[in-house]
Every structure is written in C-alpha cells, then in structure tokens.
Amino acid sequence: MSTKFQCNNCKNYFPISKKYGNYCSRSCCSIANKKPTYKCEICKSNVILFYKKFHDNKIKTCQYCNKKYCMKYNDCAGLYCSHSCSAKATNSKSKIKHGRYSSEYKKLHPPKYFHIKFPHSRIYGYKNCNCCNKGFWALTNEQVNCSKDCARKSSTYMKHTIKYEHDNEIILLDSTWELKIAEYLDENNIKWIRPKHLEWYDSKNKLRRFYPDFYLPEYNIYIDPKNDYRILQDNEKLEYFKNKIELYYGKVHYLKNIILALRERIEHPFFNSKSNVLNH
Q1: C-alpha span between 253 and 224 (Å, rounded)
Q2: Which domains does the chain possess?
Q3: What is the C-alpha to C-alpha distance for residues 68 and 43, in angstroms, rounded to an integer?
Q4: Using one digit for the tens of pLDDT, what is the confidence trace for 4-32?
Q5: Cα 208 from Cα 202, distance rounded (Å)
C-alpha cells in the first residue's frame, strides 16, 4: 500500500513526489513560495504567470462543438475537447453509420474467407432477396432468394394441369392418364365426380388425406390411375383403405376393363370381392 503525504499548502493528501517536495502540484509550490499566479477561466486551474504564454498556447477550439478547452500534454492533435466529440466527428464523416455488420459495410467490405457457420463468397456478389428484400451473399450466380422459405413464397411454379369440360363445368386433371379415364367414362355415359378427400392414419398415427381421382356414385366405387412406382410408394395408404372402401387402382387398360364391365352390366371377377390387389 503506497504512503500518502499532506500538501503544506492545500492540505490535500497526495502520493510521494520528489519533484515538488512537500507540495502536491506546481501551483501549490508557487503559491507557498509566493510566486504570482492566476486562475484560468477555461480549465479552472492555478497557473504561474511565468508560464502564461505556454498555457495560452494550449487553449484551442473544438472542431465539433466549437467549445474552448485547454489541450492536455498527451493530446498531440488537439482537435477535439473530449473523446465523445472525437468519436462523433469521425462517425459523421464516415459513410457507414450502422456498424460493421450493416448492409452498407458488407457491400464496401466483402468477406475474404469462407465461414463454416455462414458460408458465402464474394464471387457472386451481394444481392437483395426478391421476396423479403433482405440483403444476402449469393452462393450461386442464379440465386435470387435469401432462403428456402423465400424461394417457396416467390415461386411461380404451377403444377401441370389439363382443363377438361364435364357437365358444362371445367375440371382440372393432373395427368394424361386421368384424361383418358375421364374421356372413356363420358363415352360410356357413366356418371363420375371428383371426390372429396378421405382421411387416414399412417404408421406413426399421423392424420393424412387421400384424394382419389374419380368416384362413380352409381356403383359407389373409387378409381385412381397409378403406375407401378406410385403403387409401391402409396402401399401403406392403399392397404389402409383395402377393406374400408371399394377402390380400384392401376394402369389405364386395367381400369378400362373394369369400366367396360360396368357398362355392359355383366358379372366381373374384380367386383365380387373388395380386394385391391392387382393381377394385371
């Protein structure tokens, strides 16, 4: 713990100093030795008249707030009265006013390296998202959205549909197989509609919806044209409805044979049971 001494002039305590002896400062030393001094109106300190010219040279005007101040010994430039004025002046001159993580800073100072957490490159430039207008670094030259959600929202992709007129009403069909089945039903004067969805639960007990393509109200059956690949994909769904509804699915020629049997009103082996297993 450092020892402190009491000034012989102002009676304030100060750490030991060999320069001024028993005085805390030069002004106390000069006052005690009866040297003429005066009090500066700016810094409010006692200044010896002998050093008046030296002290007057330290009085300057702040370039930011236009306030007069006494320059300190360690202040080389002496342009501003405080650190806050210096910071405000430099920030006002800067073109970037929102920090190093702002969009303006990123445009002027593109990153030099790849980052694992936020991978980006300055090769493809800094762009604005077409959906949310948020700035981002593009990963490819064709990228126009900042995220997958924005890409999904701004997407103009529409599912391919076929317009078909049935009972003075335009119905949208999803494939050429559906178009062939619809034309074949109308040729044989069999009434059909686009049914509402059917609810079912998967193996994880999650509620899902099934949309059959055709429903024949006179025969209370559902028709859904599918290829072999889609049958394998929808196996769980088809097995769920196996004993609950009369559903027929498969290729076009197989379904046409069923429709032909309905038109001719003859007994058909496919209609004797509600099994949905295809042997075609």
Answers
A1: 13
A2: 1-55 (no CATH), 58-93 (no CATH), 103-153 (no CATH), 162-271 (3.40.960)
A3: 10
A4: 777 777 777 767 655 566 777 766 776 66
A5: 7
